[in-house]
Specification:
The protein is mainly alpha-helical. Helix content is 78%, strand content 0%. The longest helix has 28 residues.
Amino acid sequence: MSGYLVWRVVFVSALFCAGTLGLFMWELGRGLPVETARTAAVNAIVFGELTYLFNSRFFQASSLSWRGLTGNKLALVASAILVLLQLAFTYVPGMQGLFDTAPLDAEAWTMILLFAMLVFVAVEIEKALWRRLQPAGLA
């Protein structure tokens, strides 16, 4: 792996660790049961990865374009299926029993979606900084 790829893995991993642990602790701090905190943490990971999927459309170029966000129809279909499966994981009683999950309130979903957007924006900023710092012709 190149030095840049190692950097990207460490950077994105740190974002995910901080965001997931932060959301888990925030839910516990709200006085909610550990099952709710775990459910929020899992959803943060999944929705963060979903946004990172779109970041990865272009490794160094910006993905913040119509082509970057909608250019891969299979990714859009897979994303829709993933969202439906996550909602089942969170709300379907049989899934709740199987995975020991709990329903989330609007406040938790707001934080999860903010985290997912933060991942997307942070990686796009990182890519822009990388492009700017590279000598001409190497980016």
